[in-house]
Predict the 3D structure of the following.
Amino acid sequence: MASPARRAPQERGKAAEQTRERILKAAVEEFGAKGYAGARTAAIAARAGVNQQLISYYFGGKQGLVEELRRRWARAQESRTPPGATYAESVAAHLDATLDNPDWSRLVIWQALGDGPGAGSDDEWAAAQRARLREAVERTRGRQEKGEITGELDAEFVLLVAYALVFAPIALPRMVEGIAGADPLSKEYREWVVGQLAAMTRRDS
């Protein structure tokens, strides 16, 4: 059994990691509610129950926080859909991830509106985001070429419609509820969207 002296550094490392995670969770909530411009590190620290100086210590400040969150979102996007998933399964996975994590999704919307560091079109993050979207277009086109979904629609349009329906419950919740007649975050809405997209993109035999 390890001595207390030998366990202490490991325990300190675990405590530090837990503190980092609390700060990141609080940052998602704060950025999601107020955007990057409106968020304050003091408010993030208060949400996390930590000293404000720890944000600078662990992340270098507000910009470092949002950059770490961007990296996490990008990694999550890459692993969200398992290999071999059908079009409907892929849409359902992204819909669940978006609606199950509304604070994260609001942060993505704020970023898409140009809020935050690196919002310019020449920024490294913006370039990486464009590259990911182009890859998504090519995956959609690949599904069309394999006959999984219709080729009568542009691949870009199919992807854009899917993104709009996935993020609409976060960006326009009352409008979605009024049109669909369902709770925008509900299982009912999710199943309806996946079914309608599948019907719209179904390839005629």
